[in-house]
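Chain particulars:
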Amino acid sequence: MNNTRPAHTIEVYKWHLRALNNLYDIEQKLAAHGNPGNAKRNVEQIKEIFVESTQLFYEDPTGKPFSETTADLEASITGIGTENLTVVEVIKPIVRLGNQTFSRVVQKGIVIVKSQSEGKD
C-alpha cells in the first residue's frame, strides 16, 4: 500500500476545531460570569490534553493590533474609523498546530476590529 502522507503528519479533524471553538466559548463565559466549581481548572486540563494528543491550541487575539497584512485573522470593522485598528471581539479564536515557538494556522480567527483613535480629538 502506497501511503504518500509522512508518518509525522497529524490530521486536523473538523471535530477538533469544533471542540476547541466551544472550549474557547466556555473559557470566555467563565471569565465573564465567574468560575463556579473551579470549572476553569477543567478547561485548562482539556486544553493540555489537546496539546499533548493533537498538538492543537488556540490563541485569543483580543486587544491585539490589526492591519490588512494580518494573515491569521478575518475581520469585520465596526465604527467609522479605519486607522489604528484593534481586535475588540473574537467570534472564533486562531487555532494553531505545533507549539508556542513554531506553529502553523489551521483556523483563522474571526474577529471584530475597531479604530482605537475613534472618538479621540
